């Protein structure tokens, strides 16, 4: 590659002139004739030469424009014509791929279309068009991925008109795998049936939703269903606080007490623990429920146990559920019993849907920044390019 080629990133180029005033103008021409693109005959003749004007990256705060001599060749062997092809420049484009990528990266990083149109000398509509085409390129690179082995499923709000969407997250690699509109089995059926490699999914993490459980059983037959720790503990707290309200509505309204009751006992200071004990002294039933809740939470926080250890823990947990079903928390006990397997499976793993919730946060921000999406496909495109893909494009 010539020096000029190394600097410009376009090989086999010979620089003839460089002008630098308000913009940088580089006049260049190809160093050698290519072989015929049709029959590979290597002695083609130049029929005519035209000038190609290309925007090509910014150098020192100025747009660099290439004025290339682009010959049109005639092949005497097959008697056909073709134009010179420059590396990193697509036929008929008026900007090099490097320049388009530069605009994409800047816009992706938050530079507005208006600003880019000034610094790069292109219209805002062009910025949008290039951005979209780069998004589509990224997405097509992702489209053939098999389903991840460790999958997180959760719902999130899309729009008031279209309702909820379901996100599928690769919990192992911390990437968004896909989003699909709807959160019920009929609305997801088409998407799920077409999913490649769903037999290979080993673990599915979900909140305590009956719909998602039946979806997982049906479409991911090999997978172990694991409950999401955060949701289970939140459920326990909700039930406990409701029972408290039935027991002593006055105390439940006390914000200080509420905060003490909600937290794990081992996170309280000695003084806080004493305060709580003083309150609970007057309500023996409530005290028993509180202690049961603490024991329950201890079980629910177990993780990465081996099979043997999990088996040892099981009888204690079952006994606790038995006790709960004879208390005001019997509805909670019933729910936990129906989700016993996913909860016990939770002990064996460390994965939770925390990553999924994080992506939901990010997706909400994207949606807000775009002042909401009407078209789900556009939303999906945007979300996938940002949460599902984080390689940096090196090819030019
Ligand atoms: Zn030819």
Description:
The protein has 16 helices and 10 strands. The chain is α/β, with parallel strands linked by helices and about 400 residues long. The strands form 2 sheets. Strands 1, 2, 3, 4 and 5 form a 5-stranded mixed sheet that branches. The protein has a 5-stranded mixed sheet with strand order 8-7-6-9-10, with helices on both faces. The longest helix has 19 residues, at about 125-140. The radius of gyration is 31 Å and the shape is elongated. The structure holds zinc ion. Zinc ion binds next to loops.
How is this fold's topology laid out?
Blueprint: H1 3-8, E1 13-20, E2 24-30, E3 45-59, E4 62-74, E5 81-83, H2 97-108, H3 113-120, H4 124-142, E6 150-159, E7 163-170, E8 175-181, H5 185-193, E9 203-206, H6 210-219, E10 224-227, H7 229-247, H8 249-252, H9 255-262, H10 270-281, H11 284-300, H12 307-325, H13 330-338, H14 340-348, H15 354-369, H16 376-387
Parallel strand pairs: 2-4, 6-9, 9-10
Antiparallel strand pairs: 1-2, 3-4, 4-5, 6-7, 7-8
Number of strands: 10
Helix content: 40-55%
Helix-and-strand structural type: alpha/beta
- Helices and strands, in order, run as HEEEEEHHHEEEHEHEHHHHHHHHHH
The major pleated sheet works out as: 5 strands, mixed
Structurally, how many domains make up the residues?
Answer: 4
Percent in strands: 15-25%
- Radius of gyration, in Å, reads 31 Å
Low-pLDDT runs: none
Note the total helix count. Answer: 16
Chain oligomer state = single chain
Q: Let me know the average pLDDT.
A: 89
* CA(first)-CA(last) distance: 15 Å
General shape: elongated
Unique bound compounds: zinc ion
